Amino acid sequence: MSGEGSMQIKTKIKSCVICGFNENSNGFLGLDILCKCIKCGMVYTNIDWKEEIIRTDKDSWWQEFYHFSVERSKESLEQLCIIKKYKTEGDLLDYGCGGGNFLALAKKEGFAVTGIEIDENVANIVRNDLQINVKVSTIYQISFPEKKFDIVTLWNVLEHCPKPNLVISELKKILKKDGYLFIEVPNDSSVNRLFAIWLNKIGIRNFLNQIYVKTAHIAGHVNHFNIKTLSKIIENNDMRVVKIIQRDSPIGLISETFNKDQKIPLWLMRLLMLMVNLIGKMARRKSRIVIICQNNF
Question: Fewer CB near the terminus (10 Å): N or C of the chain?
Answer without folding.
Answer: C
